[in-house]
Structure formats: structure tokens, C-alpha cells
Predict the 3D structure of the following.
Amino acid sequence: MLNFRSPETTTLVSLANAGVCRNGKWLVRGVDFSISRGEIVTLIGPNGSGKTTTAKTAIGVLKPDEGHVERVAGLRVGYVPQKLAVDWTLPLTVERLMTLTGPLKRREIDEALAATGMLHMAKAEVQHLSGGEFQRALLARAIARKPDLLVLDEPVQGVDFSGEIALYELIKQIRNRTGCGILLISHDLHIVMAETDTVVCLNGHVCCRGTPQVVSQSPEYLKLFGRRAAGALAVYSHHHDHTHLPDGRVLHADGSITESCFPDDGHHHGEAGNIHDHEPDCGCGHHTRLQGYDGAEKRDA
Ligand SMILES: Nc1ncnc2c1ncn2[C@@H]1O[C@H](COP(=O)(O)OP(=O)(O)OP(=O)(O)O)[C@@H](O)[C@H]1O
């Protein structure tokens, strides 16, 4: 297998202090990360935290209003958007979906459908596909033009647990076979694809980042999710020093509340990677978003 993490690996995209502003409001700000060939970067964060905005900025669909984005010359991007503007009242087969936005050779269509296990469904109507089949069809469409970078915006949405594991295994196979870089947006705040090299946690800015803590060795995890899941999924443990309240204001560790984050927010005291083990009620903004704001006593110390 190729050594994807060697230091000489090509950087495909890098963002430095990137920010996007609309109607006087910063949608994301101060975003730094890069994606290299063969690398998997996963963006997580609550709804509206700027994941899609960041991904679109990385691939050049949006221009940053501050900071810089650099892309390797001639970068080919395969993009699976979160939502697809398709008129569902019109008949549309899987193979027609493949060429909606540009021509492909028969061989390219068949190869991509075969790689995603969808060749037998080439003539099926897209409207009738299951959630997992639909995501596979979108993946086939994205890989057909042999991208250097694959951007997948919530590729496991509408897919059950076992379908999610199968999709992550497929994404891993695509990375291993083609060596492309992958930017993945995850709908889950704590469970990410096990192969993820770097998790970037957004909440209008980079709250924290690091490697997921691979738990496949843990007997408790194996008991809970089974061996197959342990190979595909990993837990990203993280811990924030402030909480984003439902009304958009920010509750800080000292109990003060401000309209927005401080420049140094999201960073922990001293250690590399900002990764800590934590309890489900550690008080990071994500939990309070999920569970409802329940007071200052659950804030980080
Ligand atoms: N063109 C725009 N003009 C104004 N606001 C926008 C625009 N695009 C996105 N937003 C806002 O920016 C914020 C970030 O949106 P974005 O879609 O990037 O978040 P997200 O983290 O991907 O969310 P989700 O998990 O719900 O998909 C949201 O509050 C959204 O309403």
C-alpha cells in the first residue's frame, strides 16, 4: 500500500486564517487546516457552525473575505453536496445522474458504478433508491472524473448504522485505491470515520482539532458496537473552554457571557492537540446544543 502520510505528500488545499462574511456577519472566521493527497480530514460541528461554508471555501466555490486559500495547480475536485437540486417529479436513472453536469465515457460510468457497488442499479430510477444506494450513486458520480480531492458533505445522511459503516468502508477503499485526499463533513459530533487523520471542530471558528481516539481496541466499544463498527468508526473526544448558547451568545469558563467568541477561545490550557477524554456532560458547546442549555455548573473548569 502507498505511504500516504509521508512528509513529501502533496498538499492539495490549505486554508490560512480563512473567513467568510455575508451581510455583515462572519459565517466562519480564522479557519486553518490543510488536506494532503491520501489524507482524510473530517469537519464536525453543530448545525450552522460553518462546515459547508468552510468546505465550499476550500474548493473555491466561495471566496474568502479574509485570509488565504491555496490549491495545488490543476486540482480536480469531486463534490458530493449535502443537498441536490433535482426535480424529483422527472424520471432520472442512476446512469443519467452520472452525466447530469458533464459528459463521461461509458467505461468511466461503468467503472465508477462498479467501484461503489452500483453497477447493477445503473438503470434504476434515482427516486426509488434507498438512502445508502443514493449516497453510493452520488459517490460514483463524484469519483467518475478521478478527482484529486473528494469532498463529501454528510455522506451518511439518511443511512442506517450498518449502511453508515459500509459507506465509510467504501470511502476508505476509494482513498486507498486512488490516493485522493478526502474532506468529510460529519453529521455526528463525536463519532467519526476511523481512518480520519485530522478532525477539525468548527463553531464559527476552529474550536479544536486533533486525531480521533481510535477505540477499536477497547473491549467496551467492541461489545457496544461490534467488530465491524470498530474498524470503521472512531470516537473524537474533545473539550471546549466556552459554550455557544442557543441564542448565539457565548458563555465563558469564568461565567461571563459575550456576544461572540474571544480570539483565543476554543483552546485549552497548554497541551498539544486540544484533545482530552471527557464525560458526556463535560460542557462543551456541542453537548449543550444537543441536550439543551442547563446551566453554568456544566462548564469546563
Ligand atoms: N449565503 C449566505 N448568506 C448568509 N448566511 C449564510 C449563507 N450561507 C450560509 N449562511 C449561514 O451561515 C451559517 C453556516 O452555514 P453552513 O451551511 O456553513 O453550516 P453547517 O455547519 O454546514 O450547518 P449544517 O450542519 O446545518 O449543514 C448558518 O447560520 C447559515 O444560515
User: Anything to note?
Assistant: The longest helix spans residues 161-178. Helices lie at 51-59, 94-98, 106-115, 131-143, 161-178, 219-225, 227-232, 285-291.
